[in-house]
Amino acid sequence: MDRVALRGLRARGHHGVFPQEREEGQTFVVDLVLGLDTRPAAATDDLTRTVHYGIVAEEVVAVVQGEPVDLIETLAARIAEACLRHEGVEEVEVCVHKPQAPITVPFDDVTVTITRSRV
Fold this sequence. Notes:
This protein is an alpha+beta fold. The protein has helices at about 20-25, 40-45, 55-65, 70-85, and strands at about 1-15, 25-35, 90-95, 110-115. Helix content is about 30%, strand content about 30%.
């Protein structure tokens, strides 16, 4: 299976279990790896035979900016569902970063990574 990756998609969302997170929001960063067969697109040089990663990026940002959830696990699952709606995408790895998580000790990042497939 071939891979198309999008790294560092950024969007402001209001996800989290604490009222302050829901009210103020914060920036979330998303990395995606889409699994698909790119041979038909490569053989024909035809965008319609692969995944349009610009559209995927816009849809992922819309999910992050959309309805708030408590957990980034839930957010990652919603992003995966959106990616798998694209014809040809057989699997997706989603990594959601929450670099401004409400943690009381110094840290660089919090991430949740999931892999989902059509199977």
